[in-house]
Write a structure and sequence with these properties.
Blueprint lengths: L1 H10 L1 E3 L3 E3 L1 H5 L4 H14 L7 E5 L3 H12 L3 E4 L10 E7 L6 E7 L8 E9 L3 H12 L3 E11 L4 H7 L4 E11 L2 E4 L1
Parallel strand pairs: 3-4, 3-7, 7-8, 8-9
Antiparallel strand pairs: 1-2, 5-6, 9-10
Helix pairs in contact: 3-4
The structure holds guanosine-5'-monophosphate.
């Protein structure tokens, strides 16, 4: 997706070796127009799939998932990183955070993923694939289907894409980073 690639090169920057910061348009301040184009691109990439719902993980996935769900005209739901005391029965999975280096639980109330639904998973980054795999586990636990996994920025030098494909999931990444070297971003 050229618009996204141009923006990454213009406004993205590298921190601590292999982490890309895109806080000015994706992860903190959000460019709504770009987000809408991302939603349209995901719709086009998964046009051959019936999608009933979009699933992501808080916080950075929410804007992406909202736009995608608006374009697809289906609901979206986000997994929470802390289970509220008011939440009833829930699906949970343990995810290892790539950026924080810790394990945490992700949770979705059972009422929001229904048996047989086709769920499109979306997220901002794909590194080692643990967040997406955790979301896929929630879907499977609900006896629903993963229609595909849509990623805005894949770090192609990490093994997330391979892990997800080895587990049988279709992955569509809108921009793939070949390497981050000497504070420079090299896109595929
Ligand atoms: P994974 O679970 O695939 O290892 O990591 C994906 C998650 O970690 C994403 O939800 C994202 O929040 C975070 N993440 C991984 N790599 C990066 C990165 O280079 N930059 C930013 N901003 N977040 C990242």
């Amino acid at each position: 997706m050229q618009l996204l690639k141009d923006r990454i090169l213009k406004d993205g920057y590298v921190v601590s070796g292999n982490i890309l910061k895109v806080d000015s348009f994706l992860n903190h301040q959000i460019d709504g127009r770009l987000m809408k184009e991302i939603g349209i691109e995901f719709k086009n990439r998964f046009a051959d799939q019936k999608i009933d719902k979009v699933l992501t993980i808080e916080a950075s996935g929410i804007a992406i998932a909202v736009m995608t769900s608006m374009v697809l005209d289906v609901p979206m739901v986000f997994a929470k990183k802390k289970k509220p005391s008011t939440m009833g029965d829930a699906y949970t999975a343990v995810v290892h955070s790539f950026t924080k280096g810790i394990d945490y639980d992700i949770t979705v109330a059972k009422e929001f993923i229904n048996e047989g639904e086709n769920i499109l998973i979306v997220d901002d980054f794909l590194a080692n694939g643990h967040a997406a795999l955790g979301l896929a586990k929630l879907v499977k636990d609900a006896n629903a289907n993963v229609a595909g996994i849509g990623i805005v920025i894949e770090k192609g030098f990490q093994n997330g894409s391979k892990l997800l494909k080895d587990n049988g999931f279709r992955v569509e990444s809108l921009a793939i980073i070949d390497k981050l070297e000497d504070n420079k971003i090299y896109l595929k």
